């Protein structure tokens, strides 16, 4: 199962709206088939592994990181393929919460006389499938908020200089992370200040992450973002009062416009994230800015914090990494638990998951 989980990770960022699944087929103590979900979500992991195993799949044990699908979608059910291959046993890590499956895949296998074992390395599989699980159970993608700051939590000097606070190695690591997410997202303030490209550099993902910009009035710079839609998809979240002229321009350059409601003069970010989930996104990598990141935290939709902290201090006159959260009590602050930390190029990389009550 550990090998299957490693294979599943190869699909992260490439397979949405499908889950990234890994599959290993073992016969007489020897691996006879391996597979993982392919770019775009098909073929599924089980189908790839069965094709590699061929006749050796008969009587074999199949390890798969998610319950095999049981419904007819764009491809036939994987559960039926496993039955047809006459495997002897299927070991899974997780039940699929998708209402079209949700136990039906396991039931189909058992009805065919195949032994089924569930819950093997479930915790690791649940962490790996966090994006897919969040989209199914919360109707929105998993949101990771990234902050690259000085030791004292600043993202720029008072004059706005920010290139570069962190090391080249840390910045390359950010691009590696981008490639593992379905989308890279920024707020309108960052887009207006930087007109960022938001593509993956240094790496060559099989499927370019969608670039998402949240701008209530569509008042965005019309150079880099507008001129690069051929490099990666561009989706723009906007309010109902966005000007007709701006809508026409962004549609004309190939961007997809997504209208979402406004909450107290700002975009309703909970509705905005649900709109992204409805379009199939499972994992979104948010790179700010400070006001947008704070708004996501206030809405309670940030699942993971990813930090890069550099060994320099910019002082209170520097620009804060986050905007106002409107907190009066420490107990109201959003809490996250540290799950990983290490040095990268002289900077500290640290990753935190939203705290859940025991």
TrEMBL record:
Per its record, the protein catalyses: 2,5-diamino-6-hydroxy-4-(5-phosphoribosylamino)-pyrimidine + H2O + H(+) = 5-amino-6-(5-phospho-D-ribosylamino)uracil + NH4(+); 5-amino-6-(5-phospho-D-ribitylamino)uracil + NADP(+) = 5-amino-6-(5-phospho-D-ribosylamino)uracil + NADPH + H(+)
The EC number(s) given in the record are 3.5.4.26, 1.1.1.193
Q: Which UniProt keywords apply?
A: Hydrolase, Metal-binding, Multifunctional enzyme, NADP, Oxidoreductase, Riboflavin biosynthesis, Zinc
Q: Does the keyword Metal-binding apply?
A: yes
A GO MF term: NADP binding
Sites binding substrate sit at 162, 178, 198, 201, 287
Q: Where does Zn(2+) bind?
A: 44, 69, 78
Q: Which PROSITE patterns match?
A: CYT_DCMP_DEAMINASES_1, CYT_DCMP_DEAMINASES_2
Q: Where is the CMP/dCMP-type deaminase domain?
A: 1-116
Family, per the entry?
In the N-terminal section; belongs to the cytidine and deoxycytidylate deaminase family. In the C-terminal section; belongs to the HTP reductase family.
NCBIfam families reported for this sequence: eubact_ribD, ribD_Cterm
The UniProt function text for this chain reads: Converts 2,5-diamino-6-(ribosylamino)-4(3h)-pyrimidinone 5'-phosphate into 5-amino-6-(ribosylamino)-2,4(1h,3h)-pyrimidinedione 5'-phosphate.
Fetch the PANTHER family from UniProt: 2,5-DIAMINO-6-RIBOSYLAMINO-4(3H)-PYRIMIDINONE 5'-PHOSPHATE REDUCTASE, DIHYDROFOLATE REDUCTASE FAMILY PROTEIN (AFU_ORTHOLOGUE AFUA_8G06820)
- Kindly provide the name given to this protein in its UniProt entry: Riboflavin biosynthesis protein RibD
């Amino acid at each position: 199962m550990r090998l299957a989980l490693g294979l599943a990770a190869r699909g992260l960022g490439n397979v949405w709206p499908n889950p990234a699944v890994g599959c290993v087929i073992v016969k007489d103590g020897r691996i006879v088939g391996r597979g993982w979900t392919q770019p775009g979500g098909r073929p599924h992991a089980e189908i790839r592994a069965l094709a590699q195993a061929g006749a050796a799949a008969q009587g074999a044990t199949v390890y798969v990181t998610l319950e095999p699908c049981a419904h007819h979608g764009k491809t036939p059910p994987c559960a039926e393929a496993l039955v047809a291959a006459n495997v002897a046993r299927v070991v899974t890590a997780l039940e699929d919460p998708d209402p079209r499956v949700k136990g039906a895949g396991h039931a189909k296998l058992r009805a065919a006389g195949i032994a089924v074992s569930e819950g093997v390395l479930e915790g690791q599989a649940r962490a790996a499938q966090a994006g897919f699980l969040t989209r199914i159970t919360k109707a929105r993608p998993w949101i990771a908020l990234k902050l690259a700051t000085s030791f004292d939590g600043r993202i720029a000097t008072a004059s706005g200089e920010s290139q570069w606070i962190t090391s080249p190695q840390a910045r390359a690591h950010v691009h590696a992370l981008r490639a593992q997410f379905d989308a890279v997202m920024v707020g309108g303030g960052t887009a207006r200040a930087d007109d960022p490209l938001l593509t993956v550099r240094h790496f060559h993902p099989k499927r370019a992450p969608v670039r998402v910009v949240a701008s209530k009035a569509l008042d965005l710079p019309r150079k880099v973002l507008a001129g690069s839609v051929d490099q990666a998809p561009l989706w723009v979240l906007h309010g109902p009062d966005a000007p007709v002229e701006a809508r026409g321009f962004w549609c004309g350059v190939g961007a997809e416009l997504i209208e979402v409601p406004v909450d107290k003069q700002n975009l309703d970010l909970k509705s905005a994230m649900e709109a992204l989930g409805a379009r199939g996104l499972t994992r979104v990598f948010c790179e700010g800015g400070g006001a947008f990141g704070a708004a996501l935290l206030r809405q309670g939709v940030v699942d993971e914090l990813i930090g890069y902290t550099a060994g320099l201090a910019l002082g209170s006159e520097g620009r804060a990494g986050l905007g106002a959260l409107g907190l009066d009590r420490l107990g109201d602050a959003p809490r996250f638990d540290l799950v990983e930390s290490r040095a990268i190029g002289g900077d500290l990389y640290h990753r935190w998951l939203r705290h859940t009550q025991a």
